[in-house]
Amino acid sequence: MNYDNPFIKMLETIGNMLIVSFFWLIFSLPVFTIVASSAALFHTTNKIIFGPGRGKGVFKDFFNSYKENLIPGFKLGLIFVICVLFVAEGLWTGYQIWRLNIWGMLYMILGILITFVFIIASIHVPPVLSRFEAPVSSIIRMAIYFAIRKPFRSILFVLLFLLMVFFVESFPLALLIVPALYADLIRAPLHKDMVVFAKENGLGEENVEEKEEEEEESEQVSLLDLEERFSNDRKKGKD
Protein backbone atom coordinates (compact mmCIF):
# COMPACT_ATOMS: atom_id res chain seq x y z
CA MET A 1 0.00 0.00 0.00
CA ASN A 2 1.27 3.45 -0.94
CA TYR A 3 1.14 5.49 2.26
CA ASP A 4 2.18 8.63 0.35
CA ASN A 5 -1.07 8.51 -1.60
CA PRO A 6 -3.09 11.69 -0.88
CA PHE A 7 -6.22 9.61 -0.29
CA ILE A 8 -4.47 7.48 2.35
CA LYS A 9 -3.10 10.64 3.98
CA MET A 10 -6.56 12.15 4.03
CA LEU A 11 -7.99 9.05 5.72
CA GLU A 12 -5.14 9.14 8.25
CA THR A 13 -5.82 12.80 8.94
CA ILE A 14 -9.54 12.25 9.40
CA GLY A 15 -8.82 9.31 11.70
CA ASN A 16 -6.48 11.40 13.85
CA MET A 17 -9.04 14.21 13.98
CA LEU A 18 -11.64 11.75 15.24
CA ILE A 19 -9.25 10.41 17.86
CA VAL A 20 -8.11 13.78 19.18
CA SER A 21 -11.70 15.12 19.23
CA PHE A 22 -12.75 12.10 21.28
CA PHE A 23 -9.88 12.71 23.71
CA TRP A 24 -10.89 16.36 23.99
CA LEU A 25 -14.46 15.36 24.81
CA ILE A 26 -13.43 12.86 27.48
CA PHE A 27 -10.83 15.09 29.14
CA SER A 28 -13.26 18.05 29.12
CA LEU A 29 -15.99 16.25 31.06
CA PRO A 30 -14.88 17.61 34.48
CA VAL A 31 -15.70 21.11 33.02
CA PHE A 32 -12.88 22.86 34.91
CA THR A 33 -10.37 20.96 32.75
CA ILE A 34 -11.84 22.18 29.47
CA VAL A 35 -9.14 24.85 29.04
CA ALA A 36 -6.33 22.32 29.49
CA SER A 37 -7.97 19.84 27.11
CA SER A 38 -8.62 22.59 24.56
CA ALA A 39 -4.96 23.63 24.76
CA ALA A 40 -3.95 20.00 24.16
CA LEU A 41 -6.39 19.83 21.26
CA PHE A 42 -4.92 22.93 19.62
CA HIS A 43 -1.35 21.75 20.18
CA THR A 44 -1.96 18.27 18.77
CA THR A 45 -3.91 19.57 15.78
CA ASN A 46 -1.37 22.26 14.94
CA LYS A 47 1.82 20.26 15.51
CA ILE A 48 0.99 16.59 15.01
CA ILE A 49 -2.03 16.24 12.72
CA PHE A 50 -1.24 19.11 10.34
CA GLY A 51 2.19 20.26 11.44
CA PRO A 52 5.83 19.15 11.28
CA GLY A 53 5.22 16.27 13.68
CA ARG A 54 2.89 14.42 11.33
CA GLY A 55 3.06 10.66 11.71
CA LYS A 56 3.64 10.68 15.47
CA GLY A 57 1.08 9.28 17.89
CA VAL A 58 -1.67 11.74 18.70
CA PHE A 59 -2.56 10.25 22.09
CA LYS A 60 0.92 10.61 23.56
CA ASP A 61 1.21 14.19 22.34
CA PHE A 62 -2.30 15.10 23.50
CA PHE A 63 -1.79 13.57 26.94
CA ASN A 64 1.63 15.20 27.44
CA SER A 65 0.26 18.62 26.49
CA TYR A 66 -2.79 18.08 28.70
CA LYS A 67 -0.63 17.07 31.67
CA GLU A 68 1.69 20.06 31.26
CA ASN A 69 -1.22 22.51 31.05
CA LEU A 70 -3.48 20.88 33.64
CA ILE A 71 -2.70 23.13 36.62
CA PRO A 72 -2.76 26.50 34.80
CA GLY A 73 -5.65 25.21 32.70
CA PHE A 74 -7.61 24.31 35.84
CA LYS A 75 -7.04 27.81 37.24
CA LEU A 76 -8.11 29.37 33.93
CA GLY A 77 -11.14 27.08 33.81
CA LEU A 78 -12.17 28.20 37.28
CA ILE A 79 -11.72 31.84 36.29
CA PHE A 80 -13.72 31.18 33.12
CA VAL A 81 -16.69 29.72 35.04
CA ILE A 82 -16.69 32.62 37.52
CA CYS A 83 -16.52 35.16 34.67
CA VAL A 84 -19.40 33.44 32.87
CA LEU A 85 -21.54 33.80 35.99
CA PHE A 86 -20.65 37.50 36.39
CA VAL A 87 -21.20 38.26 32.70
CA ALA A 88 -24.53 36.44 32.66
CA GLU A 89 -25.67 38.29 35.80
CA GLY A 90 -24.55 41.62 34.32
CA LEU A 91 -26.39 41.03 31.06
CA TRP A 92 -29.54 39.98 32.91
CA THR A 93 -29.40 43.10 35.07
CA GLY A 94 -28.80 45.27 32.00
CA TYR A 95 -31.73 43.66 30.22
CA GLN A 96 -33.96 44.54 33.16
CA ILE A 97 -32.98 48.22 33.39
CA TRP A 98 -31.93 49.28 29.88
CA ARG A 99 -35.32 50.83 29.13
CA LEU A 100 -35.56 52.81 32.35
CA ASN A 101 -33.13 55.64 31.56
CA ILE A 102 -29.96 56.57 29.67
CA TRP A 103 -27.79 55.08 32.40
CA GLY A 104 -29.52 51.75 32.07
CA MET A 105 -28.94 51.81 28.32
CA LEU A 106 -25.25 52.68 28.79
CA TYR A 107 -24.96 49.87 31.34
CA MET A 108 -26.39 47.42 28.81
CA ILE A 109 -24.06 48.63 26.04
CA LEU A 110 -21.07 48.33 28.34
CA GLY A 111 -22.17 44.83 29.32
CA ILE A 112 -22.40 43.80 25.67
CA LEU A 113 -18.90 45.14 24.95
CA ILE A 114 -17.45 43.32 27.97
CA THR A 115 -19.20 40.14 26.89
CA PHE A 116 -17.76 40.44 23.38
CA VAL A 117 -14.21 40.90 24.68
CA PHE A 118 -14.71 38.00 27.09
CA ILE A 119 -15.90 35.67 24.32
CA ILE A 120 -13.11 36.44 21.86
CA ALA A 121 -10.48 36.31 24.62
CA SER A 122 -11.82 32.93 25.78
CA ILE A 123 -11.39 31.53 22.28
CA HIS A 124 -7.74 32.63 22.28
CA VAL A 125 -6.84 31.34 25.76
CA PRO A 126 -6.31 27.63 24.85
CA PRO A 127 -4.04 28.37 21.83
CA VAL A 128 -1.97 30.80 23.92
CA LEU A 129 -1.73 28.31 26.79
CA SER A 130 -0.62 25.58 24.40
CA ARG A 131 2.14 27.79 23.04
CA PHE A 132 3.59 29.75 25.94
CA GLU A 133 4.86 28.93 29.39
CA ALA A 134 3.73 31.88 31.49
CA PRO A 135 1.74 32.75 34.63
CA VAL A 136 -2.04 32.60 34.38
CA SER A 137 -2.31 36.39 34.44
CA SER A 138 0.09 36.66 31.49
CA ILE A 139 -1.83 34.01 29.54
CA ILE A 140 -5.01 36.05 29.99
CA ARG A 141 -3.31 39.29 28.94
CA MET A 142 -1.82 37.67 25.83
CA ALA A 143 -5.18 36.13 24.94
CA ILE A 144 -6.84 39.55 25.17
CA TYR A 145 -3.99 41.05 23.12
CA PHE A 146 -4.37 38.53 20.28
CA ALA A 147 -8.17 38.85 20.44
CA ILE A 148 -8.38 42.64 20.10
CA ARG A 149 -5.34 42.97 17.84
CA LYS A 150 -7.40 41.73 14.89
CA PRO A 151 -11.05 42.21 15.91
CA PHE A 152 -12.55 41.25 12.54
CA ARG A 153 -10.68 37.96 12.58
CA SER A 154 -11.83 37.39 16.15
CA ILE A 155 -15.42 38.00 15.06
CA LEU A 156 -14.89 35.41 12.30
CA PHE A 157 -13.62 32.93 14.90
CA VAL A 158 -16.78 33.52 16.96
CA LEU A 159 -19.01 33.04 13.92
CA LEU A 160 -17.18 29.81 13.06
CA PHE A 161 -17.62 28.64 16.62
CA LEU A 162 -21.37 29.35 16.52
CA LEU A 163 -21.58 27.55 13.19
CA MET A 164 -19.87 24.51 14.70
CA VAL A 165 -22.25 24.59 17.69
CA PHE A 166 -25.24 24.72 15.33
CA PHE A 167 -23.79 21.85 13.30
CA VAL A 168 -23.31 19.71 16.41
CA GLU A 169 -26.81 20.57 17.61
CA SER A 170 -28.21 19.38 14.26
CA PHE A 171 -25.92 16.33 14.02
CA PRO A 172 -24.73 15.31 17.52
CA LEU A 173 -22.28 12.72 16.17
CA ALA A 174 -20.39 15.59 14.51
CA LEU A 175 -18.97 16.30 17.98
CA LEU A 176 -16.52 13.48 17.27
CA ILE A 177 -14.72 15.58 14.64
CA VAL A 178 -15.88 19.20 15.03
CA PRO A 179 -13.41 20.12 17.84
CA ALA A 180 -10.35 19.18 15.74
CA LEU A 181 -11.93 20.75 12.64
CA TYR A 182 -12.43 24.05 14.45
CA ALA A 183 -8.88 23.94 15.79
CA ASP A 184 -7.65 23.39 12.23
CA LEU A 185 -9.64 26.37 10.91
CA ILE A 186 -8.18 28.84 13.43
CA ARG A 187 -4.68 27.42 13.92
CA ALA A 188 -2.78 28.83 10.91
CA PRO A 189 -3.27 32.59 11.52
CA LEU A 190 -2.83 32.21 15.28
CA HIS A 191 0.32 30.13 14.82
CA LYS A 192 1.93 32.83 12.67
CA ASP A 193 0.97 35.63 15.05
CA MET A 194 2.26 33.78 18.11
CA VAL A 195 5.57 32.94 16.43
CA VAL A 196 6.10 36.61 15.57
CA PHE A 197 4.98 37.71 19.04
CA ALA A 198 7.36 35.27 20.73
CA LYS A 199 10.34 36.44 18.68
CA GLU A 200 9.57 40.12 19.22
CA ASN A 201 9.22 39.71 22.99
CA GLY A 202 11.79 36.96 23.60
CA LEU A 203 9.23 34.72 25.27
CA GLY A 204 9.80 31.05 26.01
CA GLU A 205 7.65 28.68 24.02
CA GLU A 206 6.46 25.19 24.69
CA ASN A 207 8.00 23.90 21.46
CA VAL A 208 11.50 25.31 21.85
CA GLU A 209 13.09 22.07 20.70
CA GLU A 210 11.76 22.45 17.17
CA LYS A 211 13.97 23.86 14.50
CA GLU A 212 13.22 27.35 13.30
CA GLU A 213 12.50 26.09 9.82
CA GLU A 214 9.80 23.77 11.18
CA GLU A 215 8.35 26.46 13.38
CA GLU A 216 7.95 28.83 10.46
CA GLU A 217 6.85 26.10 8.09
CA SER A 218 4.13 27.44 5.84
CA GLU A 219 3.33 24.18 4.09
CA GLN A 220 1.20 22.73 6.86
CA VAL A 221 -1.54 20.76 5.17
CA SER A 222 -5.18 21.23 6.09
CA LEU A 223 -8.01 18.82 5.44
CA LEU A 224 -9.13 20.90 2.46
CA ASP A 225 -5.60 20.77 1.01
CA LEU A 226 -5.61 16.97 1.21
CA GLU A 227 -8.97 16.77 -0.53
CA GLU A 228 -7.70 19.02 -3.32
CA ARG A 229 -4.54 16.93 -3.75
CA PHE A 230 -6.59 13.75 -3.90
CA SER A 231 -8.85 15.28 -6.54
CA ASN A 232 -5.86 16.37 -8.65
CA ASP A 233 -4.27 12.93 -8.27
CA ARG A 234 -7.41 11.25 -9.61
CA LYS A 235 -7.53 13.63 -12.58
CA LYS A 236 -3.93 12.83 -13.46
CA GLY A 237 -4.72 9.12 -13.25
CA LYS A 238 -7.56 9.49 -15.72
CA ASP A 239 -5.32 11.40 -18.12
Terminus-to-terminus distance: 22 Å
Uncertain segments are 206-224
Q: What share of residues is helical?
A: over 70%
- In round numbers, the mean pLDDT is 81
String of helices and strands:
HHHHHHHHH
Describe the largest sheet: none
**What share of residues are in beta strands?**
under 5%
The total number of structural domains is 1
Please tally the helical runs, counting DSSP H or I stretches of 4 or more residues. Answer: 9
The shape is globular
| Radius of gyration over all CA atoms, rounded | 20 Å
Number of E-state strands: 0
Which structural category fits the helices and strands? Answer: mainly alpha
Structure explained in plain terms:
- With 239 residues, the chain is mainly α.
- It has one domain (6-232).
- It contains 9 helices and no strands.
- The protein has helices at 6-28, 34-49, 58-97, 102-131, 136-149, 151-170, 178-201, 212-215, 223-238.
- α2 packs across α4 and α4 (102-131) crosses α5.
List the helices and strands and how they pair.
Blueprint: H1 6-28, H2 34-49, H3 58-97, H4 102-131, H5 136-149, H6 151-170, H7 178-201, H8 212-215, H9 223-238
Question: Quick recap of the structure?
Answer:
The chain has 239 residues and is an all-alpha fold.
List descriptors.
9 helices, mainly alpha, 78% helix, 239 residues
